[in-house]
Amino acid sequence: MDRMPKWADVVLIPLISLILAAILSALVILGIGEDPVAAVKMMVSGALGSTYGWGYTLYYATNFMFTGLAVAVAFHARLFNIGGEGQAMLGGLGVAIACLYVPWPHWTLALGGAAVLAALFGAAWAAIPAWLQAKRGSHIVITTIMFNFIASAVLNYVLVNVMRPQGSMDPATARFSETVHLPTLHELLAPIGISFSKAAPANVSLLVAVAACVLVWLLIWRTRLGYEIRAYGHSETGALYAGISPVRITMIAMLISGGLAGCMAINNVMGEAERLVLNATEGAGFIGIAVALMGRSHPFGVFLSAILFGFLYQGGAELALWTSIPRELIVVIQALVILFTGALDNMVRMPLEKLFLSLRKGRA
Amino acid sequence: MTDDQAGGRQAPAAPAIELRGISKAFGPVQANKDISIRVMPGTIHGIIGENGAGKSTLMSILYGFYKADEGEIFINGRKTEIPDSQAAIAAGIGMVFQHFKLVENFTVLENIILGAEDGGLLRPSLSKARKVLSELAVEYELNVDPESRIDQIGVGMQQRVEILKALYRQADILILDEPTGVLTPAEADQLFRILDRLRAEGKTILLITHKLREIMEITDTVSVMRRGEMTATVKTADTSPEELAELMVGRKVLLRVDKVPARPGQTVLEVDNLRVRDPKGVERVKGIDLTVRGGEILGIAGVAGNGQSELLEVLGGMRPGHGQIRLNGTPLALEGPGSDGRARRAAGIAHVPEDRQREGLIMEFHAWENVAFGYHRDPAYQSGPLMNNAALLRDTQAKMQKFDVRPPDPSLAAKNFSGGNQQKIVVAREIERNPNLLLVGQPTRGVDIGAIEFIHKQIVALRDQGAAILLVSVELDEILSLSDRIAVMFDGRIMGERLPGETDERELGLLMAGVSGEAA
């Protein structure tokens, strides 16, 4: 017998966690002498009150969908891929190479080509820790973290020494050509008569991210490979018994995971900056962990929590801009949400399970 | 049955243990329903019941792990609250768990004082314990070297340490949970002698077991549990194994397996000089030769941990080995490509693994997902690039019906079935493939009597269709009643082969303990 109904596990627990995080955040804001109600209003209006706000919220959410899916896929194979950040950085390199050195005739082809290269670069970056885990037993959490630092150093080197245009003082690539410009939501929605903010960076990558959610759902829950990944994730000895190769599943799951993280670059590098700059990922790889945890590693959950974190990011930025609440406090609020939805999951879960058990007994 | 039948000695003042109306529910599951028993001091009281009948829950309530929803506990006539195990120990109750709770790299003495130290310094506690231990050794013939490390003594000795731990804490009431599960018959006999001695010294013993033979051999009174209720309490002398089995299951059961003599055909499996090392490099199987023919069951007897598991795992493609195995004359790879479970299944080897929860099933998967486990590459389960869930569901429904899996709900997760029904799902999946060779490990471990009977019948039916069957079990009864030939393993080697009609538990027990056939 399950301890509680599924809806409680999927909806109620994240909701209560969120409320707890919100209450604690409110107390912190009160503690520094600001008005939490005004702060919430500011966040909501800043992130959701205009198409400009929505444009940023969805732009961030697109990043988080890719990195959240990356963590979720690996997590189904019980692999904790902390390396989304580094894989997304390498994905950026892939996008930059695709956009700078290939004369694409049209943005659609460029998007396809850049996505493939981004995924390949991200997957390749995940492949080394995956191989070390599968063959040598090196713990993937440790190796993927280390690979984040290596990725950062590699990008630093490449941007300063290889891809920086001559004469530029900025460690970044040249601007991509107009033909690989991805349509923003403003450009996509204008033909059907919806006016969307011109300044917001949300772009067609959002649709790719949503498609990725659907594809990952199909992969995990409907294909044989997904079946094997989940079986391996639940029981390694079980997988051995069933003739599922742990090495193969570890490699494949990590390659898919790295590929998804790499794909984030079509949003931030190709869609927004239109050139590759240093630290283009801005921590989205790490947020992906929280997104996957909160989304229960389910693609639809990842979709929803990515939007939530997009809201927190954009709302937080507005808060820092218009109030005296310091930028650091925004990070505190985001950290509280991560803490409650991810790490302190059991704190909410256990009392709730007890509650449902006693409710059920009352009925019996 | 009335209470005053318990005991049987001259009416002592108060029962050592009395439970009145104990009830305990876990959510919708009523694990214990209005249970009352009285156990007189200086007696051995057996509690018998199928898996999930509520024996362990009842004992956990008595030992303070769970709190009863209703009911009262009286120890030596005094009403006692037992909120935790400290309180149980204070009330004089000691528990010997099925899985020992010993620190492997501590000595016997250190384990005994663990949690019962007097003060921060160890030396006074240790010397006190040493003295008490030597007294206990004389009193109960419980001889154990106090300075040996736990990982260097045998399982039977480890169990004595558990008993000593309880006695050191001045337990007058001992609860033993399935104490003979890991023992050889000889070790079990020794344990029973110790229990006898303890009873003679006035200790009260609660023995939880599913083995009818043990109940008949050692207990004074026995209570039978079924589905959370205590269905009967009888004097052991007044009952019979058949009656107890019927009380446990609620209907007549066949204790012996009904089967016609085997008609062995062609040799199906040949194993030559098989050697297996575990990941640490320790040799677990040290050169085994055996053959199994079609239409016969070869039973491998042995105490757990003597290489039988590794033998099954190599044959099932779960770990590499060295030597030669041939199936119907064709050599099978023992390491590298073609040696995994997938290749084994393709060759027609089905495998009911020893541990259904860690190997045979994915506990979080639905029953319909588990019915494909290992065979999930079968084209019948695919439709294009996706899994054909509708086909899986149909297949599961058919198998559940044929194997009487309850509840017959394909979308229930494996963990929500009882042990017996989980095993039926595994057995259905493997047997329905009509394999050339069926590997079976501990087919009825943690399975209720009703399901045991059913699973045994299915295995015999597969044999009669001409399949070769290799059975590994630590239950001698099971080996003796199912096998057409018996091989005994000890320390990675086969000590000898016997025919079930021409041997007995005593002879097999000696072989299991490593005494070779010639010497016996």
From TrEMBL, chain A:
Alphabetic keyword roster = Cell membrane, Membrane, Transmembrane, Transmembrane helix
* Membrane topology according to the record: Multi-pass membrane protein
Main subcellular localisation: membrane
Q: Write down the InterPro entries for this protein, in alphabetical order.
A: ABC_transp_permease (IPR001851)
Q: Where in the cell is it found?
A: Cell membrane
Q: Does the keyword Transmembrane helix apply?
A: yes
Q: Does the keyword Cell membrane apply?
A: yes
Q: Which residues cross the membrane?
A: 12-33, 53-75, 87-104, 110-128, 140-160, 199-220, 249-270, 276-295, 302-323, 329-348
Tell me which domain of life the UniProt entry assigns to the organism this sequence originates from.
Bacteria
Q: What's the protein here called?
A: ABC transporter permease
What organism does this protein naturally occur in? Pseudodonghicola flavimaris
TrEMBL record, chain B:
Q: Where is the ABC transporter domain?
A: 17-252, 269-516
* Keyword list, A-Z: ATP-binding, Nucleotide-binding
Q: Tell me, what is one Gene Ontology molecular-function annotation carried by this entry? A: ATP binding
| One matching Pfam family | ABC_tran
Q: Which CDD domains match?
A: ABC_Carb_Monos_I (cd03216), ABC_Carb_Monos_II (cd03215)
Q: Which Gene3D superfamilies match?
A: P-loop containing nucleotide triphosphate hydrolases
PROSITE patterns the record matches: ABC_TRANSPORTER_1, ABC_TRANSPORTER_2
Q: What is this protein called?
A: ABC transporter ATP-binding protein
